[in-house]
Amino acid sequence: xxxxxxxxxxxxxxxxxxxxxxxxxxxxxxxxxxxxxxxxxxxxxxxxxxxxxxxxxxxxxxxxxxxxxxxxxxxxxxxxxxxxxxxxxxxxxxxxxxxxxxxxxxxxxxxxxxxxxxxxxxxxxxxxxxxxxxxxxxxxxxxxxxxxxxxxxxxxxxxxxxxxxxxxxxxxxxxxxxxxxxxxxxxxxxxxxxxxxxxxxxxxxxxxxxxxxxxxxxxxxxxxxxxxxxxxxxxxxxxxxxxxxxxxxxxxxxxxxxxxxxxxxxxxxxxxxxxxxxxxxxxxxxxxxxxxxxxxxxxxxxxxxxxxxxxxxxxxxxxxxxxxxxxxxxxxxxxxxxxxxxxxxxxxxxxxxxxxxxxxxxxxxxxxxxxxxxxxxxxxxxxxxxxxxxxxxxxxxxxxxxxxxxxxxxxxxxxxxxxxxxxxxxxxxxxxxxxxxxxxxxxxxxxxxxxxxxxxxxxxxxxxxxxxxxxxxxxxxxxxxxxxxxxxxxxxxxxxxxxxxxxxxxxxxxxxxxxxxxxxxxxxxxxxxxxxxxxxxxxxxxxx
Length: 544
Ligand code: SF4
Ligand code: SF3
Description:
- This protein is of the alpha/beta class and about 550 residues long.
- It is built from 19 helices and 15 strands.
- Helix 15 links the parallel strand 9 and strand 10 (about 420-425).
- Iron/sulfur cluster (SF4) binds near residues 23 and 27.
């Protein structure tokens, strides 16, 4: 049956089965169909590039970039701008048509690689496009798991790319894997293997981004971040793109405009290079889903560099600017390709005429515990473990979201025994990073490594501890994994951890709707993946 839309890629999907009328995130059915078509066209282009590589042709960086950005744009809450997405479908199909001319053998190309339609039809339902086009529920589940994983990889690869770090092997994998999602001859077992391979490239992409970030901005250091406000007008920056933030800092030098971070931009404070800017004022507010109240009281313009956008209220919509993968109809998009300097003057000009932000909280939080900093403290940490002062580490990385059930994470953090340390990354931290959970011999009980991509840092820390304690297996460490997910970057973090051999990860607040019962069983049987229960039951499960 033809659906208006079908999307189940995030944790908040309707009834935990799928959004079919309108997205819980605010994505309407038209934009959902246009996004589906963009993914379809991108799969077709990837089939062609993969064939060309097999015939010995080189694929340009521009083509690789087009593909990663197409994927990134369709991540939850990144881009709601149907017309901008239609532009990309046109671009993708035109490029594909050029490349098809170079193919020596055009036999057996999929419908996606041959798809043609007029722009005015991009928003109507197309047979064979979208999640439900795959009829077998296990194949569908695995195909989508792979696609969501590579959306996450694409986001991280894009962030590394703007910092002049790329690894073509990652692009080759992305395109090969996308082409495989069109291949009806693949079995469930082959797709399970492709899923695990996706995890491998997830590790590569996060390692690449870690290298890019630390080589460009220095290794994160322990940092105290202000939560209050100053008296100058400000610009609030959200999302994950550090290069955009850097360009904005360069352009606001001497203007009297302060820069604040929101949600996933908080970890920018931990990098030595950003600490040099004296107009770097602090972090304003909480996780992405609180933006309706917090953007209003901020008073100044807001730059969304990536996901997560909540459809804005009219009261501040004209102050929202998007760039990169982000987009929202009616909000100004600041253009700029990889390597170009973006022009943020309109945002800066607007800020000059705005009131200073209204203070919504005071105090500070501490972060900057990425791998280099934690390893520098290794002696102290190891001594605390050996003395019994630290009994367990609890990895509570991932995403935050608006669902009520997420109170679990604040309550779980509060209920943890006092001799446990929380290792975190991603916006999940906002559920417990202001609870004053204290410290153990000077080591804070919440160690924030950074953004969701810095979950890689947590894996590096775990591997280092394994080495220091002389253990054979990462799972022998006193580490519990209780991870919260929301969008597709968390999917790649999960697949990356599985690839690194981490077992018994608890995933919540609900298990992904896109896991069919059989695929969920494979994850449970092979990796010990489990959901969450009540705080009381889970504390018993982990500690008794
Ligand atoms: Fe629904 Fe999530 Fe898809 Fe939005 S991204 S339409 S909330 S499943
Ligand atoms: Fe958060 Fe969107 Fe996922 Fe990057 S900002 S962790 S949800």
